Amino acid sequence: MTDTETPEAIRYTADVVALTPGGDVLLIERDWPPHEGAWALPGGHVDAGETSRAAAARELEEETGVRVAADDLRQIGVWDSPGRDPRGRYVTVAYAAAVPADTRITAGTDARTARWWPLAHLPELAFDHADILRTATAATS
Questions:
Q1: 21-53 in b/e burial notation, b at 16+ Cβ within 10 A?
Q2: Which pLDDT band, with edges at 50, 70 and 90, does 141 fall under?
Q3: For 14-34, what is the mean pLDDT?
Q4: DSSP-derived pairing of the beta strands 43-45 and 24-30
Q5: How far apart are CA 21 and CA 113, in angstroms?
Q6: Cα–Cα distances in Å, from 85 out to 12, 32, 100?
Q7: pLDDT-based confidence at 5, cuts 50/70/90?
Q8: pLDDT digit string, tens, across residues 41-66
Q9: Which residues pair with 32 in a beta bridge?
Q10: pTM
Q11: What separation in angstroms does the CA of 46 have from each of 10, 22, 50, 55, 109?
């Protein structure tokens, strides 16, 4: 078997773009490499036996304390560029969630902090999360 015939290890993840009606997005400050200390969308690995939608709802709650029913998440796309994550090949399914402006947040697992950011004044985002966010906001406008 040649290198081009060897199956590539692919990791499956889910990310969430949580937006308020006023145009704020929920971001976490990553507490681990890669991109430790950078801002990112809440998300993480899909567990065995779990759908990406269920994983997105679980990760959102674990990392930010925000609870959204999996059925209330709207899929916005799949990101699978080979170089999107320095750890290897990661494929993510991204979802959007509309949440009330007064939604309380609490940083949880894997997050140093969680914060609402106005779309007009975002920090630099880790990975390709700026692309995911652009797609999500284009779909809602």
A1: eeebbbbbbbeeeebeebbbbbbbebeeebebb
A2: low
A3: 96
A4: unpaired
A5: 22
A6: 12, 14, 31
A7: confident
A8: 999 999 999 999 999 999 999 999 99
A9: none
A10: 0.93
A11: 12, 30, 6, 5, 15
Quote the CA–CA distance of 120 and 99 in Å, as a whole number: 18
Among residues 38, 34, 42, 33, the alpha carbon closest in space to that of 13 is found at: 42
Distance of CA 86 to the CA centre of its chain: 16
Tokens linked to 59: 């990760």
Q: Which domains does the chain have, with CATH numbers?
A: 10-132 (3.90.79.10)
DSSP characters over 64-119: H-----GGG-EEEEEE--TTS-TTSEEEEEEEEEE--TT------TTEEEEEEEEG
Burial of 86 (0-12, 13-18, 19+ CB in 10 A): exposed
**Mean pLDDT of the region 87-110:** 95
Write the burial class of residue 54 (CB in 10 Å: 0-12 exposed, 13-18 middle, 19+ buried).
Answer: middle
Question: CB neighbours of 81 closer than 8 A, spacing ≥ 6?
Answer: 128
Question: Residue 7 corresponds to which tokens in the numbers above?
Answer: 């199956």
